[in-house]
């Protein structure tokens, strides 16, 4: 089993979380949407797998390169 | 008396040079999963095209009692070869000998590689591995020579000069530290193999001694570090791919600044119009779109070669072809900070503009620029200085330039997207001004907003009113752009432009005033 960190490419705040722990996701599926520089930035799954961890909640601030979720495959 | 004896000895020495560090040294190199320098050269070049220079270079080796042991080949291999049938200079440290740290003849050859490329006006490909100087060499019996003479030319001048004369590519196949790491950075294109290479100013032992930090060389300077630091342009999965990327990069450039950019036959139709371009930019300006897909739809099929993807990620740069003509591509990536120009993106932008200017490669710029990056981090990084360096590079650029206003174009940063005499196209989705509507309204109408019973509702109302009044037509009516186009017409329009600029490209030769620096 491999774990994949889902990292935010930008500093911003969490607008919507689109999945729950335990959900199956495919590579490219949107895990959550951030708001940054007045745009809605989707953060996508780097791999097919299951959502093992969600480390942020709506309205929470995130930093560039922060791990926001973990996918297991 | 003939010279048979000397000729025999010469043959022996040439053979010796090919033995490199002997079967043991080669096995050790292979044991680390790395190619030898001669294998790298053979992989890079057109088959059988290597013509070695300084085949018999060697240094005499003595043991601690000064007994002569024999000759050790120079640990730098140098020569001419061909890539896609065009001549290049290639060179690299032989890591099977003394860890690649230069012996006297090796150092001379490594420096001569740069001279050779400039003299013969052909690209230089360095395949780097090794650690630069060693204190051992200065502590030897007889002492050191005390360095170069006071009147000798600085050793690094030729390295800097080369970047204004010929394409310089560096590939890291193993650990590269010190002087060779400097060479890596002093390149138009650099690539490291993810599985075997590290790039370090200084290795773990030196770092531990100076800073008390215990880290492996991979933790210090592995591919995961330098893809994001911007020290290398690209990361390849292995050495072979790194060498193939080096070949590909060179295909877009002339052999030197004294030639025009090449042009290739093209079997992708100049009339191809991708229908998806019509709705690729969302009407809602808060929604993102994929700029890389836009580029791929417009340039010749499979011709886009992106550089530095993970550094300054809000800006996309790379080489491509349009109707067979190599071009530099600049494009904002709205998925990262809305495509804002960060300090890193600005450095990437400036270097790329200088690369294209140096080699007279025309530029096509897809603009979706919300402005310089803002906020506390951006201020601390000195964004405006790097940003203005990018603006200056574009403003003084001399190559043909096409600017396509795709979406946003706000603030001073937008000036970086226009060179003198640019051909300017706009899509109907274009928005521009001093400030984006949202932030701009908050500033310009702050009294009115603060005086309202419901300030947020008031702000939204003003934003909506101004947004409704926005239209792409005035800029076409006033000749503020050359053409307002259907996005699907972008490729045919660019192919026409490529045809128009051919006489300019024929004329644009020689060194430029501001060539690329590391």
Question: Layout of SSEs?
Answer:
The complex is a heterodimer of chains A (73) and B (518).
Chain A: E1 3-7, E2 12-17, E3 24-25, E4 30-36, E5 39-44, E6 49-54, E7 61-62, E8 67-72
Antiparallel strand pairs in A: 1-8, 2-4, 2-7, 3-6, 4-5, 6-8
Chain B: H1 4-18, H2 22-31, H3 37-44, E1 51-53, E2 58-62, E3 68-73, E4 76-83, E5 86-93, H4 104-120, E6 124-130, H5 135-138, H6 157-162, E7 168-177, H7 179-185, E8 189-193, E9 198-200, H8 204-211, H9 217-221, H10 223-229, E10 234-236, H11 239-251, H12 291-298, E11 305-307, E12 315-322, E13 325-332, H13 343-358, E14 363-369, H14 376-380, H15 383-395, E15 401-410, E16 423-426, E17 431-433, H16 437-444, H17 446-451, H18 455-469, H19 473-477, E18 483-484, H20 490-500, H21 502-507
Parallel strand pairs in B: 5-6, 6-7, 7-8, 7-9, 8-10, 13-14, 14-15, 15-16, 15-17, 16-18
Antiparallel strand pairs in B: 1-4, 2-3, 4-5, 11-12, 12-13
Helix pairs in contact in B: 13-15, 16-18
Distance between the termini of chain A: 6 Å
Radius of gyration of chain A: 11 Å
Overall geometric form of chain B: elongated
Principal-axes geometry of chain A comes out as elongated
Specify the CATH class of the largest domain in chain B.
Answer: Alpha Beta
Q: What is the CATH topology assignment of chain A?
A: OB fold (Dihydrolipoamide Acetyltransferase, E2P)
Helical element count of chain B?
A: 21
CATH architecture of the largest domain in chain B: Alpha-Beta Complex
Count the DSSP helices of chain A: 0
CATH first level of chain A: Mainly Beta
Q: Tell me the CATH superfamily of the largest domain in chain B.
A: 2-enoyl-CoA Hydratase, Chain A, domain 1
């Amino acid at each position: 089993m491999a774990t994949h960190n889902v990292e935010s490419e930008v500093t911003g705040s969490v607008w919507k979380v689109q999945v729950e722990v335990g959900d199956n996701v495919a590579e490219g599926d949107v895990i959550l949407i951030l708001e940054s520089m007045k745009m809605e930035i989707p953060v996508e799954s780097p791999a097919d797998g299951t959502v093992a961890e969600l480390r942020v909640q709506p309205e929470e601030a995130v930093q560039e390169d922060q791990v926001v979720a973990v996918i297991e495959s | 008396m003939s010279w048979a004896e000397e000729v025999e000895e010469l043959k022996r020495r040439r053979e010796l040079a090919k033995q490199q560090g002997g079967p043991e040294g080669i096995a050790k190199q292979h044991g680390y999963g790395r190619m030898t320098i001669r294998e790298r050269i053979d992989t890079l070049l057109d088959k059988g095209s290597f013509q070695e220079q300084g085949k018999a270079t060697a240094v005499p080796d003595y043991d601690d009692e000064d007994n002569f042991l024999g000759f050790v080949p120079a640990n730098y291999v140098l020569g001419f070869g061909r890539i896609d049938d065009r001549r290049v200079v290639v060179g690299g440290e032989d890591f099977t000998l003394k860890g690649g740290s230069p012996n006297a003849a090796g150092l001379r050859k490594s420096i001569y590689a740069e001279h050779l490329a400039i003299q013969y006006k052909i690209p230089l490909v360095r395949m780097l591995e090794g650690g630069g100087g060693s204190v051992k060499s200065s502590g030897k019996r007889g002492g050191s020579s005390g360095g170069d003479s006071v009147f000798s030319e600085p050793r690094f001048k030729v390295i800097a000069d080369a970047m204004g004369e010929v394409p310089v590519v560096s590939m890291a196949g193993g650990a590269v530290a010190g002087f060779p790491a400097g060479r890596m950075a002093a390149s138009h294109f650099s690539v490291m193999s993810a599985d075997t290479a590290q790039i370090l100013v200084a290795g773990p032992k030196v770092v531990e001694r100076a800073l008390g930090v215990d880290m492996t060389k991979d933790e210090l300077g592995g591919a995961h570090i330098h893809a994001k630091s911007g020290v290398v342009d690209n990361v390849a999965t292995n050495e072979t791919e790194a060498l193939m990327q080096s070949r590909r990069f060179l295909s877009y450039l002339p052999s030197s600044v004294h030639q025009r950019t090449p042009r290739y036959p093209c079997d992708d139709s100049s009339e191809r119009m991708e229908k998806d371009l019509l709705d690729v930019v969302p009407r809602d300006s808060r929604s993102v779109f994929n700029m890389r897909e836009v580029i791929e739809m417009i340039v010749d099929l499979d011709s886009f070669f992106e550089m530095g993807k993970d550094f300054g990620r809000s800006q996309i740069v790379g080489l491509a072809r349009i109707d067979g003509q190599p071009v530099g591509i600049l494009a904002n990536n709205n998925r990262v900070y809305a495509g804002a120009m960060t300090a890193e993106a600005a450095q990437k932008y400036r270097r790329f503009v200088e690369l294209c200017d140096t080699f007279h490669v025309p530029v096509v710029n897809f603009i979706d620029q919300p402005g310089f990056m803002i906020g506390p981090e951006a201020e601390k990084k000195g964004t405006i200085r790097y940003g203005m360096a990018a603006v200056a590079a574009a403003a003084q650029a001399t190559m043909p330039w096409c600017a396509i206003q795709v979406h946003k174009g706000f603030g001073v940063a937008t000036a970086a997207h226009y060179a003198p005499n640019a051909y300017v196209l706009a899509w109907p989705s274009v928005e521009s001004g001093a400030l984006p509507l949202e932030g701009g309204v908050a500033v310009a109408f702050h009294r009115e907003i603060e005086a309202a019973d419901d300030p947020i509702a008031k702000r939204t109302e003003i934003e909506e009113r101004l947004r409704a009044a926005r239209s792409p037509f005035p800029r076409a009516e006033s000749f503020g752009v050359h053409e307002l186009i259907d996005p699907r017409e972008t490729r045919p329009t660019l192919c026409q432009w490529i045809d128009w600029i051919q006489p300019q490209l024929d004329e644009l030769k020689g060194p430029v005033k501001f060539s690329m620096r590391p």
